[in-house]
Amino acid sequence: MEKKKRLEEVDGRLQQHLVLLLAIVLGFLIMDPFDMSPVGGHDFRPVKNDIAPYDQVMESWPADNLSRLGLGNLEHVDKVFGPESLEFDPLGNGPYTGMADGRIVKWAGEGRGWVTFALVSRDWSEKLCMTGKDSTTYKQWKMEALCGRPLGLRFDKSSGNLYIADAYYGLMVVGPDGGLATPLSTHMGGEPILFANDLDIHSNGSIFFTDTSQKYNRVNHFFIMLEGEASGRLLRYDPPTKSTHIVLDGLAFPNGVQLSKDESFLLFTETTNCRLMKLWLKGEKKGKVELVANLPGFPDNIRINEQGQFWVAIDCCRTKAQEILTNNPWMRSVYFRLPFQMRYLARIMGMKMYSVISLFDEQGKILDVLEDKEGVVMKLVSEVREANGMLWIGTVAHNHIATLPYP
User: Fold this and answer.
1) SS3 for 306?
2) Where does 160-313 have alpha helices with state H?
3) Confidence of residue 23 (pLDDT cuts 50, 70, 90)
4) Alpha-carbon span 404 to 407, nearest angstrom
5) Nearest Cα residue to 370 out of 319, 312, 318, 320
6) Is the dihedral of CA 65, 66, 72, 77 positive or negative?
7) What is d(CA 292, CA 359) in angstroms, rounded to the nearest whole number?
8) Which of 5, 50, 165, 175 is the most exposed place for a label (fewest CB within 10 A)?
9) Which keywords does the record carry (predicted)?
């Protein structure tokens, strides 16, 4: 009996030591002393997000059971690199797109293909910046601040000037003949604009554009969402005074921008909070911000069609596991300090990247939803542009565009 008691005591002490050892190992991993985790080397301080409950959003979200977006065609494979925004000039020529190597290029037809139209950096060089298919990999990231990363594009229909939101060089403009773009707004309140993202042009000449974060730049954009930080802003540049003003601040990854047809309101997306928002510019509600729609995934750009309806590009989709992390910042602080690559941590949460595009009317009613659940055509979608009976679909992370006849 006494021998059995001693064995039990030894076994108990062994279990205590194992628990202590596991606690020490877990604590060591959480401290991440060798910066082996996805957030290693960063001042990572997660906060709670203002995001609608997963079940509430998914119960009312219409599904595209035919996966119609997957019927689209891949175009210009390995000819364009990270074409986020697609734009046509006032004469209907194009498309034009900004690329991951810092260039803005124009489709000049089958004979000439894609030609360089504009650059955002006077330090741009073919040797340093033009890395082909590698442009959309991490290999290019260390060069982005030098080469530039043009994101949102808009033509001014009256002047033919092309306005550019570059992630590193801020708000810029280039004339109808292209060339080196001129900076318009690079600082706000004495501090550099860290992450210009998208823009739209008001008929009075003012330009609304998003500054996604005051903490992280484009290379580190994942940390904005993982942390949930809300230092983003909607800004307005006024050409007559050459001044920039804060329209809204405290936004969680403000991204796409689109004025309504009558310019009574402006829509913008908050990527981290998975929602489409409205800012009233006229009428009794002037200055008020309203929720238009909670979304099943992470929205990027918004573009209007000729009927005054709005296409929203969404990278899908939220999951139940991801919602638990979203609502518990301390869990994120632990989880993303584990020494595993982000793609593996995302899989554990059930994240599977595919694309959804949605069409909204002015009241926020969903008119259509197109999905590519298998990621056949688009695993990551940045913008949808409706033109000439076709949807033109851009992607910030891949080397092609997609087209789909519509309706």
Assistant:
1) coil
2) 221-227
3) very low
4) 9
5) 312
6) positive
7) 12
8) 5
9) Glycoprotein, Signal, Vacuole
β-bridge partners, 404: 391
β-pairing, 162-166 vs 170-174, is antiparallel
- The residues with which 391 forms a beta bridge, in sequence order, are 386, 404
C-alpha dist (Å) from residue 141 to 131, 146, 346 = 11, 10, 21
Residue boundaries of the structural domains of the chain: 62-317+352-405
Q: How far is CA 144 from CA 123, 158, 274, 301, in A?
A: 11, 32, 27, 21
E strands, 42-192, in order: 73-75, 86-87, 96-98, 103-107, 114-119, 150-155, 162-166, 170-174, 179-180, 182-185, 187-188, 191-192
Each residue of 95-109: pLDDT tens digit? Answer: 999 999 999 999 999
- What does the DSSP 8-state code read for residue 329? H
Three-state secondary-structure class, residue 13: helix
DSSP 3-state assignment of 334? helix
Between CA 131 and CA 137 the distance in angstroms is 10
CA 259 vs CA 147, 328, 383: distances in Å: 30, 35, 15
How many whole angstroms separate alpha carbon 139 and alpha carbon 14?
48
Residue 370, strand partner residues: 357
> Which homologous superfamily is 62-317+352-405 in?
TolB, C-terminal domain (2.120.10.30)
Task: Find out whether 349 and 45 touch, Cβ atoms under 8 Å.
Answer: no
Q: What letters, b where the CB count within 10 A reaches 16 and e where it falls short, cover 15-40?
A: eeeeeeeeeeeeeebeebeeeebbbe
Q: What is the pLDDT of residues 43-85, one digit of tens each?
A: 899 999 899 999 999 999 999 999 999 999 999 999 999 999 9
